[in-house]
Amino acid sequence: MKRNEVENCLLCNSPIDVPVTWKTLLTNEFPRTICLECEEKFEICKTSNEEVTSLYKYNEQMKDYLHRYKFMHDLLLAKVFRYQLHYHLKKTKELIVPIPMHAEKRKERTFAHVDELLNEAVIPYTHLLEKMTTATQASKSREERLNTPQIFQLEQGVIVQQKDILLVDDIYTTGTTINHAKQLLLDAGAKSVKAFTLIRG
C-alpha cells in the first residue's frame, strides 16, 4: 500500500499531517484518509448486543458521510473506515455476508456500497442473498418498515445448512433489513446468524 495515497482529508480537504514512525514503516497499516479533526466528529457506538454489533452512532458527521458516499456516489469515501472494519472483522470465523442491493439500484448507483467498504478493508465475503424489491427502508416510516414483507431470497444454488453467518450492512435502524435476512437464512438451515453494521441509527 502506498504511504502517501491521500494527502488531503477526503471529508474536509485539509492536509493530512501524519508523522512517519517505525510502526508505519514496518507494518501494513492502512494509511490515513481523513484528518484527526474530522475523525473526532464520529461518535463511537456503545450500544450493542450479542446479535448486532455497530461501530458508530448516526450523528451529523455520519449523516453527511453517508449522503456523500451513497447518494453523491463518492466511491473514494469507502476508504474512510477501512482500518476500523479490518480491525473488527479480520478474525471473524463466521461466513461474512453483505446485505445486497437490488440489481436495478446497483446499476443506478454504479457500485454496491457495503461490498466496497469490505473490499477497502480487505475482508473476504460471500453473497448468499438477493434483494427482491427496489424500495428502500429509508423511504418508509418506522411502522411501514416493521410491517414490510420479506425482501430477500436466497441466490440460486446457495446452501447454508449448519453455517455460522455474519451479516454486514452500513446502518442499523429498526432492524427490519437484518431481521428479514436473518430469518431467511435460519429457515434455510443456518446454524447461527449475527450482524455487524458500521452505524446504528
TrEMBL record:
CDD domains assigned to the protein according to its UniProt record, in alphabetical order: PRTases_typeI
Gene3D superfamilies from the UniProt entry: 3.40.50.2020
SUPFAM superfamilies referenced in this protein's UniProt entry, alphabetically: PRTase-like
The Phosphoribosyltransferase domain, residue ranges: 139-200
Similarity field: Belongs to the ComF/GntX family.
Descriptive protein name: ComF family protein
Organism: Ureibacillus yapensis
